[in-house]
Amino acid sequence: MEAYKQEFIDFMVESDVLKFGEFTLKSGRKSPFFMNAGAYVTGSQLKRLGEYYAKAIHENFGDDFDVVFGPAYKGIPLSVITAIAYSELYGKQVRYCSNRKEVKDHGDTGILLGSKLQDGDRVIIVEDVTTSGKSIEETFPIITAQANIEVKGLMVSLNRMEVGKGGSKCALDEVRDLYGFPTAAIVSMAEVTEYLYNQERGGRVIIDDALKAAIDAYYEQYGAKE
């Protein structure tokens, strides 16, 4: 596993973004883990988060893109910090763009924040996590209606590896197959489990045998089959 992935897993745990226990998800599923990207709140946390996104994009999709797009609302800061990190790490100037939930009719008008999209723009979409692909379903028609663009990829922080709406593939694979652009995550839940199992952090074992069994049982029931 790449060093930045190991660092990112530790970073999620340290930041209290990735928690273990028993959580009821929006879907009604009882999950032994939960990720809340809203817990990244300090300047140093956001700086590091942008760097991890930039490194994962560079590794998975390369540098041939012009715009980082983050769907409202959580994707707005993600697009900003990723564009900043790309400039600092790779010396490449990319623009940031996000959508509004409502069209603004005065001042900076329109549905978009940040850079306007232009014909020929190559776009990377950034999200915190994709559980069902619903936000892409909402935002893909918006951005493709603004200009003749090409989406070069979708990057999320954690691939939960659960079945999406289709009932067999994970949501990231469903998005890839439906829209025809590549998808990736900084880390997958399988990598998190492998890295933290029986490892001590802050004086305690994060994933012990009991929690590992609960995670395995969860994926037996809800894990993507393909």
Largest sheet: 6 strands, mixed
* Cα end-to-end separation: 22 Å
List the uncertain runs. none
Report the structural category.
Answer: alpha/beta
Mean pLDDT: 92
The general outline is globular
Share of helix, binned: 40-55%
Q: Report the strand count.
A: 10
Order of strands in the sheet with the most strands? Answer: 5-4-3-6-7-8
Radius of gyration: 18 Å
- Following the backbone from N to C, one meets helices and strands in this order, namely HEEHEHEEEHEHEHEEH
- Number of helical stretches of at least 4 residues: 7
Strand proportion: 25-35%
Topology:
Elements: H1 3-14, E1 18-24, E2 30-35, H2 43-61, E3 67-70, H3 75-90, E4 95-104, E5 110-114, E6 122-129, H4 134-146, E7 150-159, H5 171-179, E8 183-188, H6 189-196, E9 200-201, E10 204-205, H7 209-222
Parallel strand pairs: 3-4, 3-6, 6-7, 7-8
Antiparallel strand pairs: 1-2, 4-5, 9-10
Helix pairs in contact: 2-3
Which features does this protein show?
about 230 residues, globular, six-stranded mixed β-sheet, 10 strands, alpha/beta, two-stranded antiparallel ribbon
Describe the protein.
The chain is built from seven helices and ten strands. It has helices at residues 3-14, 43-61, 75-90, 134-146, 171-179, 189-196, 209-222, and strands at residues 18-24, 30-35, 67-70, 95-104, 110-114, 122-129, 150-159, 183-188, 200-201, 204-205. Strands 5-4-3-6-7-8 form a six-stranded mixed sheet, sandwiched between helices. Helix 2 (43-61) packs across helix 3.
